[in-house]
């Protein structure tokens, strides 16, 4: 809003000046007084950005899901392993007004009631000491613990400490009678309120993207109408940026055409000629711009407005946001002098460990302290490691780890052992010396022939997503006492640290994959993830695509970014498949089912695959005249085949029938774990099940050494191998016979 200031008389002006000066002096005095009274705690002077509070709601989480590293099957506390940590977060746009923990546990019948207890800490502050009552011994017992909401931050840790006693004197900490099992019914309940935050882009990616909790981010995308190809591309780039932030948490992007979402923060795309009706008063853009604004008809929700003169400006705006090269401050970001980033190289995804390079653990760690473990029985430390999904070992390669570590020295008769595991399978172990508190060890994953994810020995297999874990196990010798001669035992906590300077090397590996293989697509977004910026990918989606189809595109690009850690800035989006556009590109096809499926059988899967190939080659494929599946149920399909335009490229078609089918398809694409068992080239999805089929011609991507190609060909055709063996035997036998004949003739002479 602009204001005009009229010129006043000199008398009035002088009076106004005097008033301003006096007000300033008073304000200065107040500020000085406040500064003198301000405590040293920095949090007390943090800027207040919460300006409004909405109605409250309750969020419940199982305690078993809050265990660091993933959901636990059970939690047992003992005399030695008497501590359990639980982590939870709170969104930036939420405050917690009250917090309670419903504890459900079963205690050992041998415990002394009341003397035995559970201490509950929140962020290292004791909240309550819960006595183990007689009625809790040997059977399920429930109690409620109140947590102080003032101590809750963005990232929080609950500590459960078990203090157990089974006799008054001469207790043995390692006694089998000291245990307490936490039941799966244990819950953390948080009463929350949405808050209205300031329109400040400096908080990006908050409040739109949730990185503090483990929950999926649901962010609606709003368009004025069905978006054109360029707008779809801009939206896909933005969704991939969200996927980069959310990673394993997942993301979902409902699409709306010229209407407001019912609730939550959302993204809006607007040009000078095409904008949603609720943005009719938005100033005309003179270039790429990004706004953070209050959502209409909401007390707390925000909208991120991507604005520009035309669709090309929208692409520049989201690319600039993804680049991180611009300073985000205030409610508006005008984009000036944007420079396009060069294309990424094959297999250079930020999330992937490269091959034939030595990588320090510090380059893979996700947060400080990740490789440190403490406690009476230190838990294992975990380091996730992602690799390209098409790696192939030919017998001379492997995974080499140069491990540097520090540990608490075992004392007396105690012993300790360091163990390294990959995906929970033991790779190597080493006994730790009592004379030193540090060491170094070379560990190696044994070699084999074949894809890393399908090793002949499953225990030694790597996958696209791997978990390297390191654990120090201490064996204690505890003196036994007697009532006549009690011996006190003081258990000292141990500590183990894996040095971030430790290194790993993937060497002697090749890129090679037999296709089509939908397992590689559903779990690792392969082959699209090879070029992480999608510079070798073309998305084909109908010009007048439904909102559900656009959601499929956005969810897919977000999933690819979650795998690679890169943004899809080089993606191409078209509405017609032409050879010029698709040659040399991997194709992501999104659309309706091109044929009617009478049944979920192999023959129907072959027909569906052929229909996709015909569609891409320009042959007319009619839409089914009848829908065999109820609108409430729907059907979806994922189809993979060799590109008809390039033998080294792949087509994956994401197809659905109606809204219900799109919903089923998107739900499966968002949950890779639910599709971990699918394989082959065609997957049919309905409400009850998924059916996968291996149909069509096979082909390979990548290259192997010539000698291994020969061996691989022989292994695929056993009769040919037998024939070659016979031929070799004849040749060798003939050679030996000829040599012996010459030798006998020489002796005869």
Q: Could you explain how this protein is built, in words?
A:
The chain is of the alpha+beta class and 749 residues long. It has six domains: 10-45; 52-195, Sandwich (Jelly Rolls); 198-334, Chitobiase, domain 2 (2-Layer Sandwich); 358-478 and 493-512, Jelly Rolls; 517-697, no CATH class; 717-748. The chain is built from ten helices and 37 strands. The strands form seven sheets. Strands 19, 20, 22, 25, 26, 28, 29 and 37 form an eight-stranded antiparallel sheet that branches. A seven-stranded mixed sheet has the order 31-30-32-34-33-35-36, sandwiched between helices.
Task: Please describe the structure with a list of short key phrases separated by commas or semicolons.
749 residues, alpha+beta, Jelly Rolls, Chitobiase, domain 2, eight-stranded antiparallel sheet, 32% strand, disordered N terminus
Q: Kindly estimate the percentage of residues that lie in beta strands according to DSSP.
A: 25-35%
Task: Give the overall shape.
Answer: globular
| Distance N to C terminus | 119 Å
Task: Kindly give the count of domains.
Answer: 6
Which structural class do you get from the secondary structure elements? alpha+beta
Flag low-confidence runs.
1-52, 625-631
- In total, the number of strands is 37
Helix fraction, binned, reads 10-25%
**Main sheet: strands, sense, barrel:** 8 strands, antiparallel
Alpha-carbon Rg, integer: 32 Å
Mean pLDDT: 84
Our count of helices gives 10
Topology of this structure?
Layout: H1 10-37, E1 52-62, E2 75-78, E3 83-89, E4 94-107, E5 117-122, E6 125-131, E7 140-147, E8 155-163, E9 179-182, E10 187-196, E11 217-218, E12 221-223, H2 229-246, E13 251-252, E14 255-257, E15 266-271, E16 289-294, E17 302-308, H3 311-323, E18 332-334, E19 358-360, E20 372-375, E21 381-386, E22 391-407, E23 415-422, E24 425-431, E25 438-445, E26 449-451, E27 465-475, E28 494-498, E29 503-515, H4 518-524, E30 537-540, H5 547-564, E31 572-574, H6 579-582, E32 586-592, H7 602-616, E33 635-642, E34 650-657, H8 658-670, E35 682-685, E36 690-693, E37 699-702, H9 706-716, H10 718-748
Parallel strand pairs: 11-13, 12-14, 12-15, 15-17, 30-31, 30-32, 32-34
Antiparallel strand pairs: 1-10, 2-9, 3-8, 4-7, 4-9, 4-10, 5-6, 5-8, 16-17, 16-18, 19-29, 20-28, 21-27, 22-25, 22-26, 22-28, 22-29, 23-24, 23-27, 29-37, 33-34, 33-35, 35-36
